[in-house]
Amino acid sequence: MDFTPEIKDKLHQLQEKYTAMGQDMASYLDGLLYADFLTYWDYIHLDTLLSLQNPKTPIPDEEIFIMYHQITELYFKLALHECRQIAEHENLTVEFFTARVKRINAYFNALTTSFEVMVDGMEKEQFLKFRMSLLPASGFQSGQYRMIEICATDFIQLVDKTKRTELSTATIEEQFENIYWKFGATELASGKQTLTLKQFIKKYAAQFLQLANDRILTNFSALYHQLQANGADVSALAEELRKLDLYVNVEWPLSHYKSAVRYLEKDPVDIAATGGTNWQKYLPPRFQKRIFYPFLWTDEQMEEWGKGWVLSVLKTLKNKD
């Protein structure tokens, strides 16, 4: 058969490509000739993916618990993929920045709207049984979630709110010692660091510190201010960053709070979380007052941060019970 001009042009481009790399195009064509056609299940490693659920107990709903957390981590990986594109873009524009933050917001929207799987998708009796086999593991130990936080804002905004003013000019290393989530993983009785927290710090601290230092000038807050200072119209970007702020710092922790209230609240004594974390004080957004972009909110909005959401959730859950 005769080659069309389009095929000849592509062969010529391939020849140029492989010549530039010092490679023999004919050898690569041989490989293409003998290679099998790609299948969907091989491309996404489906068999491997479906084999990654290994419950610690025979209780059926534990598998739901595992799969949902694995789905969560995949969404976090998607978000971090966008974070890297934004931070490492050589000629960042408002349009590119805004489009990528929209993607991250879409991922968090999917997460928050699907969290009913965790709130109502398991039998409470089953959960309270299999959870004891998970000690001291906890969703608190999601390193990817902490990395998203680091990429999203100036590191000082992740410091416990009682220490932010005092440590505003401190080094990243000094600020890290007072990062907010450390105070949410202390033993309820003694105030000492839980094993959950000790494990987490041992595995991720160096990685977190490296990322925080790498993102001093390329976190979302810093990049926003750079674009604004250069005269760019950042109004659309500001709207997406506000949505991100609410998703990560209100909607997502509140989804966990709803689940904790559903499964762990027990009158008159609350059931402790598997990691021993103080979830009653750690999860509600109104207590943490963690806000990525305070410059995008009014004083009144920040004062009321998370209050309405928490109160409405408590009322809904108590009525349901």
UniProtKB/TrEMBL annotation:
It comes from the Bacteria. SUPFAM superfamilies: Indolic compounds 2,3-dioxygenase-like. One of its GO terms (molecular function) is L-tryptophan 2,3-dioxygenase activity. Pfam families: Trp_dioxygenase. This is Tryptophan 2,3-dioxygenase. Keywords: Dioxygenase, Oxidoreductase. GO terms for biological process: L-tryptophan catabolic process to acetyl-CoA; L-tryptophan catabolic process to kynurenine. The keyword Zinc does not apply. It comes from Pedobacter psychrodurus.
